[in-house]
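Entry 14. Structure prediction run on the chain below.
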Amino acid sequence: MYAPSPFLLVKDTPYASYSVSATRLTGGMINFVWRLENAQGHTVVLKYASDVMSAYPNAPMSTERLEFEVRGLCLLNGPHILAPSLSETPHLRMLAELGMLMPQTPGVHVPRLLHYDSKRHFAVLEDLGSLQPYNEWNSPEQPARPLEDLVFVSRSVGQWVARLHGFGAGHMHKLLPYFVNTPAREFLGSVFYDTLRKRIAEHPLLMHDKCGLVKAVDEFVEQTQHADAASKTMLFGDLWSGSVLFDPTKRTVNIVDLEFADTGLIFADIGHFAAHLLPTHFLCNASYNPATDPCPEPTIEFLRAYKETLQKEHPEAYHRLVTPEAARLSAVFFGMEIARDVLTGYWCRCGKSPSPENGEFPLSCECAGLLLPYAAQFIRGNVSFFKTLY
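Output returned:
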């Protein structure tokens, strides 16, 4: 697939000197990303948004997604002063000033936005270094991670999301004009829900209840698309394990990739991240059976930290956003996300199913037999440990 030279992109910017080397970074599926280095050894990250997904050249996606990431970064960069090229744009300056009012979470960091070219669809960001995403750092290929570290990451993310949601609920009138993320919503509809329906209907483990599960997905989509405005807030939008980078030396949690920054219901952040914490535990613990064993402590601590922080610091937002129905929707989305991943080929720990890198094939091994029935009960409405939220 064609992507412009990163050196040509930055040629007429304050980062033109970062032309010694360009290293393509992997891990994401949507954008082209490079690490650029200058003669002094300093580095920045360049992110370019093509009109298709970088990992799927036949899948079109609006370049407008980068605009939403830039808006999110301006809001979340907190006390950092915008670069001159950014502060000249009124709505970005307004979002940055508004974001200065947002409470910070100690130990949690969002990369600084350094430069943005809206016409050529690229941004220059602070380089966080060679940190691994959570799903690579905490994986079967790595040494067993201390429970203390796993809980630290989970609670830090839970606290940070709670402050984002609490702040967003109190400033929706200012945020809504800039965070109706149509590209993300279209992606969710076509890539997530449509694919999930199709694969539920095809997988033999779900054939006995495929109509009921597809109906549950349809009802979820209908309900969430017509939700009351009072139950909505600011969302990260794509909070999964690949968006979280833990630095065990500095004890910092870095949160990246805001292309899906949006406004909506809390399930999109809460159910989504939980749906990556629990299967990660499944991968790293060969004897873990989600149907019979307790919910892993990192997953529970994520939900608990979210509740405690939002309830204490934003009590009005907590009572408005975190209802029994919000917990149920989070549980349903949790089940759908796990099912979608299993039906795409992820979360195999036995090694008997092909890797998703070789094409998308639903798991057909014993791992599917453990995870799909478990996910299905949440899609049907089992709230289970999501009661921790209220």
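The CA atoms of residues 58 and 108 lie 36 Å apart.
Filed with the rest of this week's runs.
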